[in-house]
Design a protein that fits this description.
- The complex is a heterodimer.
- Chain A has eight helices and four strands, in the order αααββαααββαα.
- By secondary structure, chain A is mainly alpha-helical.
- Chain A has a two-stranded antiparallel sheet with strand order 1-2. In chain A, strands 3-4 form a two-stranded antiparallel sheet.
- In chain A, α2 packs across α7.
- About 4% of the residues of chain A have low confidence.
- The two termini of chain B are 15 Å apart.
- Classes of the chains: A mainly alpha, B mainly alpha.
- The complex binds protoporphyrin IX containing FE.
- The site of protoporphyrin IX containing FE has 26 residues of chain B, from α3, α5, α6 and α9.
């Protein structure tokens, strides 16, 4: 026959043993598979996050001056650059910018396709006609389109299993969803000479954030500080270039972020009041039941 | 249906006229206003209302999404981006639908856990319980097909991995498994054809779920709600009418849960998803780790824990089907674990097992992870096949109140036998 006490003791001893063994076993298995990505501070993170228009404008400049040679951003239309909640360039400036790009016109009566200046309703033109051309120009590697890059990457931290709950709770309470931006920043600033003993494959570059540490992308900021002109007085440093272009890419991947967080605050506020009122109502109804 | 006086009084001429022809208002009044609910039910009993709410959320947001979504391999991913970027409040619909699926599963896990803890599966609620398991399976099928629709890398590869499981049937009847897989795919590989049929079924199944929910609630209203004591309602003082009591409590709990839902919709819409699903499906590039959505992880761990593919598939399905047998596997005469001093601990061990399996399902199947997945998988089944029958026979239930009223108001002077197992309240 079981006695309550012995059974309780038995089960809790079993639980403890399981916990200990799991932690011992997992510590070995959880070898650093992903390089550690440091968290950055972003104006658009957290519950009250907003994009900094000036930063997005600078980031756009870094993108066009440096990255657009190799990477497209085809989910962004010129019109988006003038929209609120984004870089919010003046419409006239965006129109003028668009007109400097030539895109295919619709076929004319003779069926010939001519070029015309781009309009606000055109997507940002890609540097390549197709994937083959992209790969051919990059020694076989494919530079991904950057429209969704901060959404499509993360800063996976390999925490031991007993740290998972508190990491989760911290991220949920602070509304932290910026792992992708942290990764992109770490990647574009992560270039260096390979450590002694690491042999790079042909056309490969050492990068401390990239999984496997060998990437086909050369350091985009090899030119160093001063590479891109800023006209708002922000120091022209590689660090600022990287931060600004990452913020711009974060907007490109999540252009409704400001609208989303603004509405979120209203909804949560409204629900808080509702919950309190319903709490009183419930207590009143149940007053003489218990 | 449960026998109780209806307080329904048709007030105007139209409702009197209708009452004489189709007394639907009378029935609704009896079932959702007068319906006696045990006076002692706690907040775990609000999960049923939550689940109905989330079925409604999925239906409404899904129908709106379907107006803008294109179920073809070439357009699916772009159409979801179009919804996120260009459709008015499309981002909201999309976030509500994706996060809503997670909340739906969170609620259903609490709901099932409550049933297991308080013995709600025991007679006379077996049919009610089994319909619940059917709803759970339908939800899983719906969510699995829904996850394929954005046609990202995880969508594509999850479909590939899971549909391929059927090819394990080849090891019993050579060729049959392959034929089934090709029939599911509509071709020789996962393609736009597969996507289109998954969309069709993803639109259909929620309505099947809605039908099953009606049966579930019908069965509930025949046998009545269980409660933390596991005792049946015997006297009028054991219950309160559903409205306003249970209703105010349900709405209050719902608002709290909706706050959690809103938190994810507005601040963390992508937290529960996988970043690879923001990369368009590419049949030529396999992601390094293919992981399902969080709510499938425990079953995924069970699938991979077993070295033989066919047996892995069998174990995965068995881990859910086995729930249908709990009314007969549990031999205890007492329903509620509140009065089961030994089983109570095993219940929590089982909860830990499921969480551990979930964690292991998210890890690559290598090294110590495989070993632990095997240990926990074994325990998962042992809980049902060994613990439930044996502990039920051996344990001595603790002192029980005689009625729900006594449980709430304290013993009203009558002596209570200490240690004597209360007879299971059956009629
Ligand atoms: C039981 C209810 C339902 C569940 C559990 C469910 C679950 C899901 C899930 C998990 C996704 C993928 C979300 C993502 O990561 O993007 C999805 C997508 C989708 N669902 Fe549902 N769904 C349900 C009902 C419905 C209904 C009733 C409809 C339409 C009538 C619908 C239409 C869609 C559409 C169009 C998508 C693709 C758009 C997108 O991915 O955002 N769903 N569903």
């Amino acid at each position: 026959m079981f006695t309550i006490h012995a059974a309780k003791k038995g089960v809790s001893a079993l639980l403890l043993a399981v916990a200990l063994m799991v932690s011992a076993g997992m510590a070995g298995a959880a070898e650093q598979e992903h390089p550690v990505i440091e968290r950055q501070t972003w104006t658009f993170s957290g519950l009250f996050g907003k994009y900094d228009d000036a930063q997005l404008q600078r980031g756009f400049r870094v993108y066009t001056d440096v990255c657009s040679r190799c990477h497209g951003i085809n989910r962004i239309y010129f019109r988006n650059l003038a929209e609120p909640g984004g870089p919010a360039f003046p419409v006239a400036a965006v129109k003028a910018l668009a007109a400097t790009f030539k895109v295919d016109d619709a076929p004319n009566e003779e069926g010939k396709v001519k070029k015309r200046p781009a309009l606000l309703t055109d997507p940002f033109p890609s540097p390549y006609k197709n994937e083959q051309e992209a790969r051919f120009s990059q020694n076989g590697a494919l530079p991904p389109d950057l429209s969704l890059i901060t959404k499509a990457r993360s800063a996976e931290a390999e925490a031991p299993f007993y740290r998972v709950p508190d990491h989760m709770i911290r991220d949920i309470l602070t509304g932290y969803q910026e792992g992708g931006a942290d990764y992109v920043y770490a990647y574009i600033t992560g270039f260096s000479e390979p450590p002694a003993g690491v042999k790079l494959a042909e056309f490969m570059n050492y990068n401390k954030a990239f999984p496997g540490h060998q990437t086909a992308m050369p350091n985009p900021f090899a030119g160093g500080d001063g590479l891109v002109e800023y006209d708002d007085g922000t120091p022209r440093t590689v660090e600022n270039y990287a931060r600004d272009v990452t913020a711009f890419l974060a907007w490109a991947g999540d252009p409704k972020l400001e609208e989303r967080k603004r509405l979120g605050l209203l909804v949560i506020g409204y629900l808080l009041i509702t919950v309190v009122l319903l709490g009183f109502a419930k207590r009143r109804v149940w007053r003489d039941v218990h | 249906m449960a026998s109780h006086e209806s307080s329904y009084r048709p007030t105007n001429r139209l409702s009197k006229w209708l009452d004489a022809r189709l007394p639907i208002q009378r029935m609704m009044h009896a079932q959702f206003i007068d319906f006696p609910t045990p006076r002692n039910i706690n907040y775990l009993w609000t999960t049923g209302g939550l689940l109905s709410f989330f079925l409604g959320v999925q239906l409404l947001t899904g129908i709106v999404l379907a107006m803008h979504y294109a179920p073809t391999a070439a357009d699916a991913f772009n159409s979801v981006e179009h919804i996120r970027r260009d459709v008015n409040y499309g981002w909201l619909m999309r976030n509500m639908h994706a996060v809503g699926a997670s909340m739906f599963f969170l609620a259903v896990y609490i709901h099932i856990g409550r049933g297991l803890y308080y013995g709600s599966y025991k007679a006379p609620r077996e049919v009610l319980w089994i319909i619940g398991v059917v709803i759970f399976l339908l939800m899983m099928a719906t969510a699995f097909m829904g996850y394929s629709l954005p046609w990202g890398q995880m969508s594509f590869w999850a479909v590939t991995v899971i549909t391929n499981l059927f090819s394990s049937i080849d090891s019993i009847i050579p060729g049959l498994g392959t034929r089934i897989v090709q029939w599911l795919w509509g071709g020789y590989s996962v393609s736009g054809t597969t996507l289109t049929r998954f969309f069709s079924l993803h639109y259909l199944l929620p309505f099947v779920i809605a039908g099953a929910v009606v049966l579930h609630i019908w069965a509930l209203h025949v046998v009545g709600q269980n409660n933390p004591t596991g005792l049946e309602i015997k006297t009028a003082s054991d219950s309160v009418p559903m409205s306003p009591h249970a209703v105010t409590k349900d709405i209050f709990a719902l608002s709290v849960f909706v706050m959690l839902f809103a938190w994810f919709v507005f601040y963390l819409p992508d937290y529960l998803g996988h970043p690879d699903n923001y990369i368009e499906a590419n049949p030529l590039s396999t992601p390094p780790h293919i992981v399902p959505e969080w709510y499938f992880l425990p079953y995924y761990a069970i699938l991979r824990a077993i070295p033989n593919k066919l047996l892995g598939v069998v174990a995965m399905f068995a881990s859910i089907i086995i729930l249908c047998f709990t009314p007969w596997l549990d031999t205890s005469r007492v329903r509620s674990s509140k009065y089961r001093p030994v089983y109570k601990w095993f219940f929590w061990l089982f909860v830990i097992t499921v969480i551990a399996l979930g964690y292991l399902g998210s890890k690559p199947p290598e090294g110590a992870y495989v070993l632990w997945a095997r240990i926990f998988t074994a325990y998962y089944f042992m809980h049902f096949l060994i613990v439930m029958p044996i502990v039920g026979v051996m344990e001595t239930p603790s002192r029980m109140p005689r009625s729900i009223t006594e449980a709430v108001l304290g013993s009203s002077g009558q002596p209570v036998n200490v240690g004597a197992p209360a007879a299971p309240p059956r009629h």
